[in-house]
Amino acid sequence: VELIEDKHSLRRALAAEREAGRLVGLVPTMGALHAGHLSLVDAATAGCDIVAVTIFVNPLQFGDPSDLVAYPRNLERDLELCAQRGVGVVFAPTPAEMYPRGDSSTVVEPGPLASRYEGVSRPGHFAGVATIVTKLFSLAGPCRAYFGEKDFQQLAIVRRMAEDLDLPVEVMGCPIVREADGLAMSSRNGRLSPDEWTAATVLSRSLETGKALITDKGERSGGGVGSAMLDMLACAALVRPDYAVVADPISLEPVGTITGEVRLLVAADVGPVRLIDNMAAAP
Ligand code: PAF
Fold this sequence. Notes:
Elements: E1 2-4, H1 7-19, E2 24-29, H2 35-47, E3 50-55, H3 65-70, H4 75-84, E4 89-91, H5 95-98, H6 118-121, H7 125-140, E5 143-148, H8 152-164, E6 169-174, H9 194-200, H10 202-215, H11 222-235, E7 239-247, E8 262-270, E9 273-281
Parallel strand pairs: 1-4, 2-3, 2-5, 3-4, 5-6
Antiparallel strand pairs: 7-8, 8-9
The structure holds pantoate.
């Protein structure tokens, strides 16, 4: 695996791949790679000729400086995992490389898709994501880019942004990878104590309950399903729920009456860690 740390070398390397007729698969990450990220790498490997993984903990998308400091980093191990997986290029720039002026005066504002859910709890987060993803797309050039459905709102925003701005990138969504106990894989899970980890499994259980209400019990009220999920989260020790909603899978608007496929979205703080999860459901 070739480690690239500067923007211009990345641009040159991926342009050369395209000139040689190869389709580039881009996997943007913040590192601390786990099986969820590796499933994105596998999807990119299956669909493209060369895979580039980007590893950058983007300060612009962290509102809380202590969250940025606490975010796990392990470049050595990430490189090893990428090498084992046959990744062609790892782009791991410093903050100064990505933001030479210390910040970005120009910011990509994602609009209404970013105004709900994570957007409320983490003001500015999605503008930070949209800005760094635009920069990465600009450096990578025409490619396919792989994102996990775990961050479902992020995926919807990035898809819409690529469409709105005519970015030459095909955005691919990949299914959530779960631990055996149902907990959605996340780099943040490593900060959970054993008790918090057990408590955190209520997120996926609440989603399963919501899904069963819709699919097996014929519940058609989005508000009803949301309340049932929120009650489950609220009853769990160590868990402080934020939201539990039934949303349209494209617009992310809350759904009143469920008539087709919906996305169930939940978020909660468990101990010191903010966790999100989601699941598709249909009548
Ligand atoms: O999902 C992430 O890891 C980040 O939000 C992303 C897309 C790499 C942008 O920093």
